[in-house]
Amino acid sequence: MKRYDVIVIGAGPAGLSAAVQAAEQGMSVIVFDENEKPGGQLFKQIHKFFGSKEHKAKVRGFRIGQQLLEEAGRAGVEVKLNAVVTGLYMEKEVVVKIGGAMEHFKGDSVIVATGAAEKMVHFEGWTLPGVIGAGAAQTMMNLHGIRPGRKVLMLGTGNVGLVVSYQLLQAGCEVTALADAAPTVGGYGVHAAKVARTGVPFYLSHTIVKAEGTDHVTGVTIARVDENFAFVPGTEKHFDVDTICLAVGLSPMAQLLKMAGCVMDERAGHDGTTPLCDENGATSVPGIYAVGDVSGIEEASSAMIEGRIAGLAAAAYLGFMDEKKCREAISCQKKALMSLRRGMFAPQNKGRKLMTTEEGIPLSEHLLKEGYVGDEEIGRFPGVRRSVGIHPVMECTQNIPCNPCQDACPHHCIRVGDDITALPQVDDTKKCVGCGLCVASCSGQAVFLLEENYAPGFAAVTIPYEFLPLPEKGEKGTGLGRRGEPLCEAEVVQVKTSGAFDKTNLVTLKIPGDMAMRVRFYRKEV
Amino acid sequence: MTDRTKDPGMFVPEPDDDRIICRCEEITKGEIRRAVHAGMFTLTEIRRFLRTGMGLCQGQTCGGMVRQIVAKELQVPPDTLEPATARAPMRPVEMWVLAREGGEEDA
Amino acid sequence: MEYRIREHPILGEIEETKKVRFTYDGKTMEGREGEPVAMALKAAGVQIHRYTRKKHEPRGIFCAIGRCTDCVMVVDGVPNVRTCVTPLKEGMRVETQYGISARPPEKEGK
Lengths: 526, 107, 110
What we know:
heterotrimer; A: 22% helix; C: Ubiquitin-like (UB roll)
């Protein structure tokens, strides 16, 4: 039986981060992953991540995956792919199916980073070809370059449902509608807003009655549900779609931990699906750690930090690092983790209905119920200001841990402050030069540049644009509002692309002056 | 602990009883509900009785839904049900692979 | 609209890997070497991978990462092969799976 100081199960963001950290302390490390390629879900994440610099904010997920693999390579981490862990025992023996053989390994410590599986819901016709998980859609289009369908209905408005809907649009699919049984949008408002402004309708308090079709999906019927999630008769709506995407949540894949005898977390507010861990990820079985989604569903940015902490803790546990040095290193990581676990979507706020931002501003009702901020609501947020000359308008209306806009501005026009969940503000004393770096840096695509006196009677708005074909200077099309409604003619007066923007192109539209605060998207068709 | 004295009452048919819940073993909602009325109160018992979650995917897809259905039938919150036992192999392994365990010379 | 993405706003031009030929229920089809068999089938418009054992219902791609096993087919004579994680090779023989075999069940007196 081969022995390692650390055996990591799962080569996703949490597992790889743990492995790198452990290897850097001089431990022998092996990572097992059942997939053909490492990286977990990171390589399917083509959007820019939230957070601040230390969390690799505004870097797209797949690039973070590439960086992590390079780090692992440099640290000398051995990653064994197509290696299916079939058993984990209390004595930290790991049984792995590799090719046609069952192999046994012994770890002096084991870090479990098996991630999560998609939850599912059932409805009439849910087994038909064409009903797929949202993760499947992401895998198909972002890893394999295959569109999952032509017309898609998305069930679920959590971040997965919202992000995958946007990615479907980017892949050239039509997203017919988003539906969610919950009464309010579950994910970040900025993710919802960038889908809504393309014209995709949101149906909250709605769920699927049935998938239609005999051999594969040819349509879907949704209907409104009441407070008890029972269908309200007469509210059915039919859509012609060929694909139904399910994004109704994730559940930790903790079977290996259970099998090893780790105590599961059944304290109040916990449902026993995650292991009971100390703040370093140590489970009740000495030497076994749990990190990433398997220890509680969070974003990949948090998973990477959790991984690093457990890697350090394992090093101290086995005497590869002295206690004091370890404590210092861990406290530094914890600071970064705590700054991500703040704001409206923090784990401690799960299930709570918030009415206002931390600044005391009432939240946008439209955003929660229809996916976009209403024209009459937008003015109350601190990033939305009118002024002479070109200036940024930041339609950031919820407290999420994110501040790349502040770092992006070379002239310090934008202030978030030390508390990275605060809503951004514009500093009127600093002069905006219209470089657009803030527009491209916003992971939520919520920053726009506005020049209200662009020409007599006309304003210019610069929008982030991540679709093909890219509009061309001089072409005329339609300016769309926040819910995708056609508002006016819009002339493309400038298109900026740059390496620094990382594929978030800047399109400047000339629009009638009274549309300055309303036009937020563009469509070529008139 | 599972309350063995619990009486789930009479089985009342529902319109969606023929809906597949366990996709691999093709077990319907009605079969799961009937199993509860036949005295299968834990997820492990349901699994042994009906084979829910014993197919190729090993319960990855239906686990949560079976829990919801059983809990509703017993009129208890889903998170109070004992979780199904986790045991090796956690993923499907072909018999010929298991048979080779113990070294090449024995094969 | 075709299923294959040629150019993507974030991922750029999708690299065209070597074309290979395979058969699907005897028909010759073309796919890209190394892509999952299920992707080559999807690109060719095939959605039904198998019919279930008990109820003979159609199934196709569901999770696309090898977990749910709904997309299994008979590949090169071997049943229960997860096509979403099996790389396509030149000359592969891919067949619809009925229950656990590549032969449709006898129609029962219908």
